[in-house]
Amino acid sequence: MRMTRRVVWGLAAAAMFGTVAGGALAQETVTIGWTGPLSGGAALYGKNTLSGLELAAKEINEAGGLEVGGKKYKLEVVGLDDKYSPSEAAVNAKRLRSQYKAPIVFCPHSGGNFAMQAFNEQDGFIIGAYTSVPQMTERGNKLTLRIPPSFAGYLDPFIKAEMSAFGKKLGMAGADHDYAKAWAALIAPAWKAAGGTVVAENPMSYNKDTDFYSGVSRVLAASPDVMFIGGASEPTALVAKQARELGFQGGFIVMDQAKLDEMAAVLGGDWSLLEGAIGTLPLIFDQRPGAKSFVPKYRKAYNRDPGTEASLNYSSLNAVADAMKLAGTVSDAPAIFAKLSDAFGKLPPERNPASINSVDAKGGSNAVLVVGLVKGGKVVPVDASGTVQN
Amino acid sequence: MNLSLFVQQILNGLTLGSVYALVALGLTLVYGILHIPNFSHGALFMAGAYTAFFFIGSLGANYWVALIGAAAVTAAIAVLSERLVFSRLRDSPPLHDMIAAIGLLLFIEAVAHAIWGADFRRMAPPFPGIMRIAGTVLPIQRALIIGGAIGLMIALHLFLKRTTTGATIVAMAQNREGASLVGIDLTRVSIITFAISGALAAVAAVLFAPINLISPSMGNLVILKAFVIIILGGMGSVPGAILGGMIIGFAESFGAFYISTDLKDIIAFALLVAILSLRPQGLFPAPSR
User: Fold this and answer.
1) Of the candidates A40, A43, A218, which has its C-beta nearest B257's C-beta?
2) Is the distance from CB of B229 to CB of B166 less than 8 angstroms?
């Protein structure tokens, strides 16, 4: 009996020594999984979200790696193309978990995230859901981190700022995909509750239409003061431009999928066409210290301007790395998940350009929302109450 | 009814109809040679837009030079596809042509994807001005689309009806054996027809690009409409392609304005079903072969 125990201890010691020796010889790697579009129309969007993760991993590795429980780990981001398809996202996630042992899989589309929610608790990995659909965290999944804030938070500042600046009549000319419909279903009642009227509802197919002139003129025929627009940035810019050509002088409420700076780029940098438009604040105009230090770093690494999809994912991977330290494990997903809120709260601003301060009980981040209004050809920040800050 | 808004929809319908008709014209001419719809035609439309984008953006060419350059390059691509692919399949079953056409479509799209990436590109409008006539808005670029398309249609009509080369194309479309018997060279006619179809697609794309976006998949939206148009107008018919293009353009613009933008495609396709159930052979059926 005594003999047996001694042998067991000896084996345990040998095993421990073995791992330590192994760690000294070659640094161990923790794989951070990512599945998203790398080909097709949404490829650029996919690459932007992936770049935020890669930049964060690169910085952590250059600073000497991640030290968890006395061991050093290197972070490696493995990105697999799912062509924006939920089923391929699920297959990729299975592969990332079983082949690479990834404790977390990031995905930038709601369909893929919903698909992964079917098995992530069982397989033991966290979903890093880059989507602002509020339902993402309403299904009771215990290992889902919703990275962007829910878009419901935009309604108040958007409506207050536009209604006071332009008037009470809203014309709806948003896109007709699911995400845009979810937005429309929230903003129309909120606008009415704020004392306004909705004078026209005419969703258009931003991805499939060849021209928006007729659709826009149908909305303008009801003489709205403010137009609700938004799909991908590029067609949204065309909708805004055509509305101006057809004589519209009012403001635009721009759905968060479209980014004001990308729209201006499509219009040849002509911000005057977007005067009075309110939307998410482009990161390059964000005056908070975290964002200000992130923009030059990103430009240096990728030679282009970062958007919020890069900064939000960058903040998140930094928090995940710190949560691993706090939890003392790189593989136990529930333990890491439990420390995420703490980790976000303790991140210094330069590692948290998205200003996420905590994660709620359901897994939703509560980044501090800042929106941007185009005023005098410049984007000025507007706070959550709809007050323009200067 | 507000008259200026009504006139506005007529102008919108003319703009859209002109672009559709130009694309459908190339498609219908090539149908006369191949006897299958050339699926790769949408890729030629896209290639024309990117070529002009390259001429303007990278070589600093002026818009008109880019337009002519794009027409020439795209015509060359079309001729190459005829020489390297379709002419070799002349004696194969039509299914082989069809598969080859789809292959070409995917190939040209993948090349554009590899060179320019997936992001949307934009060509700055060469004439950003806007004409306003009694409450109706007509940007100069849109006027250019309408004028350019009508000019090209007249030129094409004169070419087919008044020149010997044009007559050989018509003859070949009507009866391949008959035309060969009277000494018309099939190879020469094929090359000319493909060149014209490529050039028409490129001109349509370059006229349309400044009011739209350039992306590798831009041709798919237009080519789908063009198929509908040549079925509506009668496969292989030139006046059918023009009238069909205008019908779809007007149905879209009036449907989007007076009924619902969401339903405009339903309206356009319902019209197609209605017309075809009354005239199954299309509006201008090709003379019997």
Assistant:
1) A218
2) no
pTM higher than 0.95, yes or no? no
Q: Average of pLDDT values for A324-348?
A: 95
Q: Band of the pLDDT at B132, cuts 50, 70, 90?
A: confident
Looking at residue A231, what is its pLDDT?
85
Mean pLDDT of chain B: 89
| Nearest-CA distance A312 → chain B (Å) | 21
Give chain B positions within 8 Å (CB) of A263.
none
**Side-chain half-sphere CA neighbours of A35 within 13 A:** 27
Report the distance separating Cα A120 and Cα A101, nearest Å: 13
Which residue, among B196, B197, B175, has the nearest Cα to B186 in the 3D structure? B175
Which residues are CB-neighbours of A165 under 8 A, at least 6 positions away? Answer: A251, A276
> Considering its fold, how many domains does chain B have in total?
1
**What pLDDT, in 10s, does the model give residues A190-222?**
999 999 999 999 988 887 777 888 899 999 999
Q: Are A345 and A280 in contact (CB under 8 A)?
A: no
Mean pLDDT, range B88-95, rounded to an integer? 86
Cα gap A287→A380, rounded to integer Å: 10
- Judge whether B177 lies within some domain: yes
Report, as an integer, the average pLDDT of A4-28: 49
Nearest to A215 among B8, B120, B256 (CB): B256
Q: What is the DSSP letter of B84?
A: I
The whole-number pLDDT of residue A5 equals: 52
Are the beta carbons of B15 and A211 separated by less than 8 Å?
A: yes
d(CA B207, CA A18): 70
Test A245 with B139 for CB contact under 8 angstroms.
yes
A221, B2: Cβ pair inside 8 Å?
Answer: yes
- Residue B68 domain boundaries: 24-217
Assess if residue B107 is contained within a domain. yes
In this complex, which of A44, A245, A247 lies closest to B118 when CB atoms are compared?
Answer: A44
Residue A9 confidence (pLDDT): 53
Selecting from B16, B139, B257 the residue whose C-beta is nearest the C-beta of A217 gives B257
Q: Which amino acid is at B214?
A: I
Q: Tokens 């080369």 appear where? A: B165
Query: Does the residue B237 lie in any domain?
Result: no
Q: What is the DSSP letter of A92?
A: H
Residue B78 to residue B81: CA distance in whole angstroms: 5
Percent of the residues in chain B that have a pLDDT greater than 70, as a whole number: 98
When pLDDT is cut at 50, 70 and 90, the band that residue B1 belongs to is low
SS3 content of chain B, % helix, strand, coil (to 5): 75, 5, 20
> Are residues B118 and A43, on separate chains, in Cβ contact within 8 Å?
yes
- Separation CA B51–CA B212 (nearest Å): 15
Residue A204 phi/psi, 5-degree rounding, is -125, 160
Domains and CATH numbers, chain A: 27-151+289-367 (3.40.50.2300), 152-255 (3.40.50.2300)
Interchain contact, B212 vs A218, CB within 8 Å = no
Domain-located, residue B89: yes
Residue A367 φ then ψ, to 5°:
-60, 145
Q: Does residue A245 belong to the interface with chain B, where contact is any CB pair within 8 Å?
A: yes
